[in-house]
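Dear colleagues,

As part of the handover before I leave the project, I'm documenting each prediction I ran so the next person doesn't have to rerun anything. This entry is a single chain, and its sequence is reproduced below.
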Amino acid sequence: MTLSLKKMDRRSFLISTAAVGGGLALGLRLPLGPEVVRAADGSPEVNAWVVIRPDDTVVVRIARSEMGQGTLTGLAQLVAEELECDWSKVTTEYPTPGQSVARKRVWGDFSTGGSRGIRESHEYVRKGGAAAREMLIQAAANQWKVPASECSAANSVITHGPSGRNTTHGKVAEAAARLEPPKDVKLKDPRDWKIAGKPLKRLDTLDKLTGKQVYGFDLKLPGMLNAAIRECPVFGGKVKSFDAARVSGMKGVRKVVQVGDSAVAVVADTWWHAKKALDALPIVWDEGENAKVSSATIAEMLKAGLD
């Protein structure tokens, strides 16, 4: 049996060998055969925004931070709307900043500020969903040897109008991933939206309720220590004294340190041990002149400023 290998450049080699060593969450390009970008589970990436599994599960890539404002679900709705997929089968994942740089910032801006995550990216994420839809329709049309203009997509099903034949997104995703993305796509009229802008259940709620959601606070590194810090409760105040010996023997405590002039921290093996020790640490503050400030004195100062 003769095996033909295509020429591999330095970047392809680095990506492939990294995948063998530890796996890539996104953007693995297999060096054999037609070039298809795959997710970590091997499912084909139709484009940077959309991965579709054989069971029709749709993974929407989200490049903005979910901070309670609904950005994750809202952006997924915009992509799913244009993709014409079954919303009940939509899930999400976050590409990392490192993956973004490796792929020439294909997901655009990662910054998040209130509602700007949707306001500033809604057009290009919609185009990502629309492009994926057209590629899926084209893949089905190629399979049936009919014009793509005779086919339509709805609820993760692609149908050939004249014959009534149909298939699902998951069945043609592999073929769609091999196609050249369209340069121009037509976006849906918002008046025709069925998913975007609708009061659907948020995609992140269940993971937060069950503790599955991973936060920055959950980061764990080998040998990592944690600190709990307390600052003078009065602005401008300073640390007068603290009794480190009272807590140094508590479970997990490694060190008690002063931080600048105004704070004290306990360093321990876990954050909980650090917090419990800090709660028990006797600290005496020099609160300074601002200790005399109250709502009444502030009101008097403002009143004087009006005179």
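DSSP finds nine helices and 14 strands in the chain. The radius of gyration is 28 Å.

All the best with the project,
I.
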